[in-house]
């Protein structure tokens, strides 16, 4: 049984930075990590890449050969990967036994909210290699400062959750920069809990761009509330506590916390229904890793 994360989100949401920071954190707490780059447009990788889709297909070559734009090229690349899934499976085999996997996907939102190729790739890997994956959907926190963009982010998050059918965590990334985009209309809890979106209506009506779509926006907000699936956690990738809290959520969602536990169904259920702040300090190297992680991002002058 192998555990890991499917990292997705719009362009600029910080997926590659997330994979770099998360891989460092996981290594520091004693896990072997393999980062798999499945974004053929990502040619500047800050992390050590265990598997790179560019060894199979390159976006630039696809665009030139088939006269496609970036979006069409990415769809083609994912279709090609789906048809050559055996290549990816063979590349992953050396890491299946004892590694934690991070899949860095492209930022084109249609790939994980409309098209079926990414979903099919993930499903085939999960069945063939017995993977336990959680989708980490990154959304730039600055969208909270614009009610219209925030509603769009909610709809994208909801459609992605329904489309991928995976354990799913929506993350407001770059939360440390949120104040630099302007003062929020409400407390941060309003944007993370996603409750009573009718309060957004007044602020949307103040913007001439949104006023004429008042009824449509109201209906869209009601769709999000009726499903009751979307909420957010926050992340500052340079803050060890922020990363640690997210890791706890992920480990609970994909079952990693149960992997080393032997016991009855009752004992499992106690952990599943228990508080989120389960004891990470039972892991070796955890205390030392907290210090090391801080030094990586905040080196002493």
From TrEMBL:
InterPro entries listed in its UniProt record: Gpn (IPR004130), Gpn2 (IPR030231), P-loop_NTPase (IPR027417)
SUPFAM superfamilies the record matches: P-loop containing nucleoside triphosphate hydrolases
GO terms under cellular component: cytoplasm
Highest taxon of source: Eukaryota
Keywords: GTP-binding, Hydrolase, Nucleotide-binding
Protein's name in the database: GPN-loop GTPase 2
MF-aspect GO terms: GTP binding; GTPase activity
Keyword Hydrolase in record: yes
Subunit-structure text: Binds to RNA polymerase II (RNAPII).
Assigned protein family: Belongs to the GPN-loop GTPase family.
Function noted in UniProt: Small GTPase required for proper localization of RNA polymerase II and III (RNAPII and RNAPIII). May act at an RNAP assembly step prior to nuclear import.
């Amino acid at each position: 049984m192998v555990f890991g994360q499917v990292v997705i989100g719009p362009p600029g949401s910080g997926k590659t930075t997330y994979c770099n920071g998360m891989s460092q954190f996981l290594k520091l707490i004693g896990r072997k990590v393999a980062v798999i780059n499945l974004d053929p447009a990502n040619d500047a990788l800050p992390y050590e890449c265990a598997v790179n889709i560019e060894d199979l297909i390159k976006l630039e070559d696809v665009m030139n050969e088939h006269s496609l734009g970036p979006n069409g090229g990415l769809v083609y690349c994912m279709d090609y990967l789906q048809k050559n899934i055996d290549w990816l499976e063979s590349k992953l085999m050396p890491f299946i036994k004892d590694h934690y996997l991070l899949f860095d996907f492209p930022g084109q939102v249609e790939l994980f909210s409309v098209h079926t190729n990414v979903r099919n790739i993930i499903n085939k890997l999960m069945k063939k290699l017995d993977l336990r994956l959680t989708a980490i959907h990154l959304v730039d926190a600055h969208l909270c400062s614009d009610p219209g963009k925030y509603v769009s982010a909610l709809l994208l998050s909801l459609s992605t959750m329904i489309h991928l059918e995976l354990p799913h965590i929506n993350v407001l990334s770059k939360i440390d920069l949120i104040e630099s985009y302007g003062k929020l209309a409400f407390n941060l809890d309003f944007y993370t809990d996603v409750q009573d979106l009718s309060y957004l209506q007044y602020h949307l009506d103040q913007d001439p761009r949104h006023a004429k779509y008042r009824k449509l926006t109201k209906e869209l907000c009601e769709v999000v509330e009726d499903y009751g699936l979307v909420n957010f956690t926050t992340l500052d990738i340079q803050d060890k506590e922020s990363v640690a809290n997210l890791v706890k959520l992920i480990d609970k969602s994909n079952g990693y916390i149960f992997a080393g536990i032997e016991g009855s169904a009752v004992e499992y259920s106690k952990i599943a229904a228990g508080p989120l702040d389960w004891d990470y300090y039972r892991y070796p190297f955890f205390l030392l890793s907290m210090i090391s992680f801080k030094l990586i991002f905040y080196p002493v002058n």
